[in-house]
Design a protein that fits this description.
The chain has one domain: Nucleotidyltransferase, domain 5 (2-Layer Sandwich). The chain is an alpha+beta fold. The chain is globular and about 35 Å long.
């Protein structure tokens, strides 16, 4: 599970979070479940705030908004990121 905050005008990634990172991998035993998605959501919100990002658009791609996708979004909102 991963998430990125990207500036669409420049195409640059401003912040990212993934369960394959050592920091997040220690927090979750398996990277493909709802708990892992929530950890990524919280981390991306915190890293975004450190980069000065308070609001963004949530692009879920072809994935439906339920399960892991919804858990990531809800955790990011709870951590202060606005969609």
């Amino acid at each position: 599970m991963y998430a990125q905050l990207i500036d669409d005008t420049t195409g640059k990634t401003l912040a990212s979070a993934s369960t394959v990172e050592a920091e997040l991998h220690k927090q979750v035993a398996y990277g493909g479940n709802i708990d892992a998605a929530a950890s990524v959501g919280k981390a991306i919100a915190e890293r975004g705030q450190e980069a000065g990002i308070k609001a963004c658009a949530f692009d879920r791609g072809p994935c439906k908004y339920h399960g892991r996708v919804a858990a990531l979004a809800e955790a990011a909102r709870e951590a202060g990121l606005e969609f």
